[in-house]
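Re-run requested by the PI after the first attempt was lost when the workstation crashed. Everything re-entered from the original request form. Ligand of interest: geranylgeranyl diphosphate.
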Amino acid sequence: MTSRKAVRPQADGLSLYLERRRKLVEQALARAVPAVSVRPGTIHKAMRYSLLAGGKRLRPILALAAAEACGAKDPTGVLPAACAVELIHTYSLIHDDLPCMDDDDLRRGRPTSHKVFGEGVAVLAGDALLTRSFGLIAGIKPAKRYPLSLLLEETADAAGSLQLIAGQVADLEAEGKKLLIREVRFIHERKTAAMIVLPIRLGAMVANASPAQLKALTEFGQALGLAFQILDDILDVTATSEQLGKSAGKDLKASKATYPAVIGLEAARKEAKIQTQKALRSLEVLGSRGARLRELGESLLKRQG
Ligand code: GRG
């Protein structure tokens, strides 16, 4: 007979944790935007089509795990912040896929928003998701150390013209140009890492993180975000569209500024590993509470899609 103790490590394993957290997030996301039956149905259909298309939910899960690393026992208070970031992320994907940007027809394994609803509704679905995200943040019950105004300000900064949009603009302007690696890093830190740091900080702040915990988690997010985008660059070259749920080989075709394009595939792999190790080192001050984030960080470097 197998003892309870013997099965525990597996029951506590990362895949079960991810499955449970994803379920929580999916349910909260489904409640976060109006139903299709609410007028005008088209916009709510388009918002739900992209939002509920089953991404990895990495950003909301990071928010929940960061809060847990700061001692939060019940993750439900973090769900509005976690969902808000997923809404911003989904808006950025919808807009990035538009013909005037990356012009893509596959996302999360489905036809892109503008292919299904037309460009006008796709633009508006992105706008509506972004706007709704601030409504969600406004509903957070803030902790002592971090007022709601700070959570709103950090969200606006991360999604604004100094971070997410800065990265996207630099990315657009870099197409077809020969960039230095520090310029590619500038893009990656803004286009990708900012949206990884944001949920981690929001989750930590909702859980009333100490200044030392918040600093460690921010450094973790910055390095993990960079590693994540370098790996995304690598997978664009090495994975298939089926594995990715989006068109593979696009960066190369569009002469995008990527790590493999500038320093080569092997050096890019090495850099992704260096940044992941840096991220994991940042967690040391959290002690055993950082274990889940450590597992998450390690698993991201192994992902194939
Ligand atoms: C349009 C303002 C604006 C910004 C666009 C998000 C973005 C910036 C561009 C999309 C293409 C891209 C390579 C973005 C970098 C971030 C990234 C790797 C997004 C994909 O995130 P995943 O892999 O996707 O977490 P899922 O679908 O799992 O959520």
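Saved to the shared folder this time. Residues 55-56, 58, 89, 92-93, 95-96, 108, 164-165, 168, 191-192, 229, 232 surround geranylgeranyl diphosphate (CB under 6 Å).
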